Every structure is written in structure tokens, then in C-alpha cells.
């Protein structure tokens, strides 16, 4: 309930799914491995995810202004 309000208020909708689970750009192993890219493909996947998020959030902000 509170998390949903936080997500909506800060326009972070693209970072969670319909059940309010956090979407990760790369597979998440529960902090078992170090927070670093394993290869160029991991970096590219992360970069694409961030770009999609920024674009989507920017559009949401545009609609509010």
C-alpha cells in the first residue's frame, strides 16, 4: 500500500510490475554475487533498461506538466 503510493508519487511505475514487484535490469541473485557487470552484454542490457526507464518517466512527467 505505502510502496504503491511512493511509486506513483515519484513516477517510478516502470520499475515495478503489476504486482508491485521490483523489476531488475539483470538477473537478481539476492546479493550473492558482486554488483558488477560480467560482460559487455550485461552492460548493454542494463544501459537499455535505464534508457527505457528514463524515456518512460520523462513522458509521464511531460503529461503532468
The helix/strand order is: HH
Number of strands: 0
Helical coverage, percent range: 40-55%
Q: What oligomeric assembly is this protein in? A: single chain
What does this 3D model show about the protein?
- With 65 residues, the chain is an all-alpha fold.
- It has one domain.
- Helices cover 51% and strands 0% of the residues.
- It is built from two helices and no strands.
- It has helices spanning 2-9, 40-64.
- The protein is flat and about 40 Å long.
- The two termini are 26 Å apart.
Please name the defining characteristics of this protein.
65 residues; mainly alpha; 0% strand
Q: How would you summarize what this structure contains?
A:
The chain has 65 residues and is an all-alpha fold. It has helices at 2-9, 40-64.
Secondary-structure blueprint:
Elements (H helix, E strand, L loop, with lengths): L1 H8 L30 H25 L1
